[in-house]
C-alpha cells in the first residue's frame, strides 16, 4: 500500500461547518491542497431539510454579546468568535456570491428564493471554483498522528496523509471516538429543543391557545424563560417552552423529564399588584362576575377553566382570601411534566467536545496540535432560529482561516 502525501488540509464531514472551513482555508491560501471527506453519498443534508426546505441561514442579531446569549452551551466561548464572523458577515459573504437573504418578522433569515437548494448550490459552486476536492462515501477505519501530521486509513484503499485535520462530523459517534482518541473529553449528547408532555393536563381542552408573554420555570431550580407559550393537546410548546428545554437540557435528561413546572401567567405584574387589581374590581363591580369582567384579558375559555367554581360567582361573594389565592395561582400555576414530546426541531442535541479543550481564536485543539473542530461536534448548541447554522459558519470560518 502506498500513501497519498499530497494534502495540506482535510476536513472530515461535508456539512455546513465543514464546507465553510474548506472554503475559508482555500480563500486564505489558494495554493493549499484541501479536501472534504464525506461518509455518505450526499453533501449538506442538514442544509437541505432546514427550515422546511427553505434553510434558516442565520438570525438578524448583529451584536456579538446579544448573539452569544442565544447559545445554552457556548455562550461565553462564542463572544470572541462572533466579533470576527457574525450574521452581518454571513449576509455579506452570501450576497457577494449572488445569494440575497431576507429577514422575517421573528428575525430568522432565509434566501429570497425560499429554497435551501440556493445555499447548497452556492457552497458547492464555490468549492468547485476554488478547487476543493470532495470525496464521497469515505469509509474511514482509523486516524493516527504520524510525525506531527495525520494518517487517515481506509479498509480497501491507500491511506491519506494530511498536515492539518478538521473534524466537522456533527454528533456522529465516529467523530466523538476520534476526538477521544486524540485526548479530548466528550460531554454525552442529549436532546435539546423539545416540548413538555403533561399527561392529563387540566388545560388539554384548550389546545391551540397561545399567550404572548408568560414566565415558565422548573420548580426548585433557577431555570426559567419568558416569552410566548402554546397550549397543546399533550402539554406546553412555543418559544418559551423550547428555550427552557434547551437551557435545562442536561438537568431534564438527568431527571428523566419528570419535573414540576411553574407558570406565571402575568409576568409583567407582581402578586401584590395582581391582588390589588382583583380587590379594586371587587369594590368597583361587586355585582359582576370575574368571568365576565376578565380584568387581565385572557382568552375566555382559558379564564373560565382557570377560575373553576369561581367563574359564575359575583365578586361580592368572593372573599379577599379567595382573591389572594387566585392571584397567587396566576403567578405560580404548577403542572407536572412526565416526559418530552418529539418536536420537528428536535434534531438539535447538546453535547460534544469539551469547550475547555479548544483555542477559540483558531478552533485548534489545546491537546493535539494540528487538529481543529467546527460545528456541532463541539459542545455548542443554539436555540431555534438560525443560531446553529451561524455557529457552523463562524467556527468554520475561524478554523479555515487559521489553518
What does this structure look like?
By secondary structure, the protein is of the alpha+beta class. The model has no long low-confidence stretch (mean pLDDT 95). The protein has 2 domains: 4-190 and 349-402, FAD/NAD(P)-binding domain; 194-344, no CATH class. The protein is built from 14 helices and 21 strands. α1 packs parallel to α14 and α10 (271-284) packs antiparallel against α13 (320-331).
Give a brief rundown of this model.
By secondary structure, the protein is an alpha+beta fold. The chain has helices spanning 16-28, 45-53, 64-68, 79-84, 87-95, 116-130, 173-181, 239-247, 249-254, 271-284, 290-293, 300-307, 320-331, 387-402; strands at residues 4-12, 34-37, 58-59, 101-103, 108-111, 133-135, 140-146, 149-154, 160-167, 186-191, 195-197, 210-218, 224-231, 235-237, 258-264, 333-338, 340-341, 349-353, 358-359, 364-365, 371-373. The protein folds into two domains: 4-190 and 349-402, FAD/NAD(P)-binding domain; 194-344, no CATH class.
Amino acid at each position: 500500500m502506498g500513501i497519498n502525501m499530497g494534502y495540506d488540509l482535510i476536513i472530515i464531514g461535508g456539512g455546513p461547518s465543514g464546507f465553510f472551513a474548506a472554503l475559508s482555508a482555500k480563500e486564505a491560501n489558494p495554493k493549499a491542497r484541501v479536501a472534504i471527506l464525506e461518509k455518505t453519498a450526499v453533501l449538506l443534508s442538514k442544509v437541505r431539510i432546514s427550515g422546511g426546505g427553505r434553510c434558516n441561514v442565520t438570525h438578524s442579531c448583529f451584536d456579538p454579546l446579544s448573539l452569544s446569549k442565544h447559545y445554552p452551551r457556548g455562550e461565553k466561548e462564542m463572544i470572541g468568535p462572533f466579533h470576527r464572523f457574525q450574521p452581518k458577515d454571513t449576509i455579506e459573504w452570501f450576497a457577494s456570491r449572488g445569494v440575497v437573504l431576507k429577514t422575517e418578522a421573528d428575525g430568522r433569515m432565509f434566501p429570497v428564493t425560499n429554497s435551501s437548494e440556493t445555499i447548497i448550490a452556492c457552497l458547492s459552486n464555490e468549492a468547485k471554483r476554488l478547487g476543493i476536492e470532495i470525496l464521497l462515501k469515505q469509509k474511514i477505519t482509523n486516524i493516527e498522528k504520524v510525525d506531527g501530521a495525520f494518517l487517515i486509513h481506509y479498509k480497501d484503499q491507500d491511506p491519506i496523509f494530511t498536515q492539518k485535520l478538521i473534524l466537522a462530523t456533527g454528533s456522529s459517534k465516529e467523530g466523538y471516538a476520534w476526538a477521544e482518541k486524540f485526548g479530548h473529553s466528550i460531554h454525552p449528547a442529549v436532546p435539546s429543543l423539545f416540548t413538555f408532555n403533561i399527561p392529563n393536563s387540566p388545560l388539554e381542552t384548550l389546545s391551540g391557545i397561545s399567550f404572548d408573554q408568560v414566565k415558565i420555570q422548573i420548580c426548585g431550580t433557577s431555570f426559567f424563560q419568558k416569552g410566548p407559550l402554546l397550549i397543546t393537546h399533550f402539554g406546553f410548546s412555543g418559544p418559551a417552552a423550547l428555550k427552557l428545554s434547551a437551557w435545562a437540557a442536561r438537568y431534564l435528561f438527568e431527571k428523566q423529564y419528570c419535573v414540576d413546572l411553574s407558570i406565571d401567567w402575568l409576568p409583567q405584574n407582581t402578586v401584590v399588584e395582581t391582588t390589588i387589581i382583583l380587590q379594586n374590581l371587587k369594590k368597583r363591580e361587586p355585582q359582576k362576575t370575574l368571568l365576565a369582567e376578565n380584568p387581565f384579558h385572557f382568552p375566555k375559555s382559558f379564564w373560565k377553566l382557570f377560575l373553576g367554581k369561581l367563574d359564575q360567582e359575583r365578586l361580592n361573594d368572593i372573599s379577599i382570601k379567595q382573591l389572594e389565592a387566585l392571584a397567587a395561582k396566576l403567578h405560580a400555576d404548577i403542572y407536572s411534566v412526565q416526559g418530552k414530546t418529539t418536536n420537528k426541531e428536535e434534531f438539535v442535541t447538546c453535547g460534544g467536545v469539551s469547550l475547555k479543550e479548544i483555542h477559540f481564536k483558531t478552533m485548534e485543539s489545546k491537546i493535539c496540535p494540528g487538529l481543529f473542530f467546527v460545528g456541532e461536534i463541539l459542545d455548542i448548541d443554539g436555540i431555534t432560529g438560525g443560531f446553529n447554522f451561524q455557529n457552523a459558519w463562524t467556527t468554520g470560518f475561524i478554523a479555515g482561516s487559521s489553518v
